[in-house]
Amino acid sequence: MLFARDVKSREVRPGRAHAFSIDIITDQSKVYRFDVPSTNPLDAYAQLTKRTAYNAIPGIEAIEVYAGFRKDRVKEAQPLRVFAKSELIYSNP
Question: Is the pLDDT of residue 71 over 60?
């Protein structure tokens, strides 16, 4: 056995216990939305940067992180955290 314990696909992972949704705003006023389970808003953004889809989006101006997944977000929801262009990591120019 390669691993010490059996990993179950539906097992609760503490590092992904909270639901967040992220809006990516580009310089062309396009908005891309993603659901990212993680531990906190900063971790949600860090997890998103590992996705190929994030790396393929050009001209990112800002990242907004919201509590809950997209389907549960209310119209009036305010972001928990906003990452300005100067704070972005691994973004495509």
Answer: yes
